[in-house]
What does this fold into?
Amino acid sequence: MRGRHAKRAVLVFSLFLLCSAGSLKCAPVAAPFFVAEAQAGQSGTCMTNQQCAKDEFCAKLYGSCGESGKCEARPQDCTEHGKLLVKPVCGCDDKTYDNFCLAASAGVNVKQEGKCPP
It folds into this structure.
């Protein structure tokens, strides 16, 4: 019976950055996903952008700057109907970006909403 519990999957609700291609539908959303408990170094994970392809970045959960992430494509267009939505966010690099999408496009994850403290 013990082996049956060794690799148990857990349903977790977490915050992801959802971006629609070609528009600025880039916002944090709660989404369920499965994670395996205590599996550090899992295949497909990254800690830095250098571990991803040239057009990808190491996407991490909102506010999880020091945690592992997953290589995801950098957004190419952060406009909606030709306009840029300005909703400042503070990146994990302690720089302020006009929105989530522009931070992701620069290969930076978001630490918090709003401008970074001076």
Remarks:
- Confidence is low (pLDDT under 50) at residues 1-18, 20-25, 27-43.
- The two ends are 55 Å apart (CA to CA).
- Residues 8-36+49-113 form one domain.
